[in-house]
Specification:
With 171 residues, the chain is mainly β. The protein has one helix and nine strands; from the N terminus they run H-E-E-E-E-E-E-E-E-E. The protein has a single domain, classed as Jelly Rolls (Sandwich).
Length: 171
């Protein structure tokens, strides 16, 4: 009886070992991870273009890394002329903002209140938590760097402020 148990255990181990080696032989080998690309850009190498449709016209944007239209981390720079205002809005993910040059007037809330603006100058940093209404205005030409998780989305507190819904008339 003892000998039968020993044979049964030995047979089971052989079978398990056989399954394990078969699984190892037929399992696809994982692809090696693509090497990470480094990004090194001088200010002169930035490629500026019109800002996204979801922002008021007049600003410019440059993508530094990632793709704001896709899932994952991205970093962009926004260049805004004096007086450029983005009405109260929010994003589904946190937005990290560093002021590169100029002064960005920033405030939290769902209604624009000039008295609530806090001036943020070059070197300043702010984080707007996900789904928190905030608004900004450039004082002088201002450049900011924004880092967030994509895809980039913007929801205006007042839907009438959304530039995607505004129509232009031609004379």
């Amino acid at each position: 009886m003892q000998r039968m148990k020993g044979l049964a255990i030995a047979a089971g181990m052989v079978l398990l070992t056989g399954f394990n080696s078969t699984a190892q032989q037929t399992a696809p080998k994982p692809k090696p991870a693509a090497p990470a690309k480094h990004v090194m850009l001088t200010a002169d190498e930035l490629k500026w273009g019109p800002g996204p449709e979801s922002l008021p016209p007049g600003g410019q944007a440059a993508v530094l890394s990632g793709d704001p239209g896709k899932s994952g981390m991205f970093t962009i720079r926004l260049k805004m002329p004096d007086g450029y205002t983005v009405p109260p809005h929010s994003h589904p993910t946190a937005e990290h903002v560093t002021i590169v040059s100029g002064t960005l007037m920033m405030a939290m809330g769902s209604k624009l209140d000039d008295a609530a603006f806090k001036p943020m100058t070059a070197g300043a940093y702010a984080v707007m938590p996900a789904r928190s209404d905030h608004y900004v205005r450039a004082k002088g030409e201002t450049i900011v760097q924004v880092m967030a998780m994509g895809p980039f989305e913007i929801k205006y507190a007042n839907p009438n402020d959304d530039p995607r819904k505004k129509t232009t008339t031609k004379n």
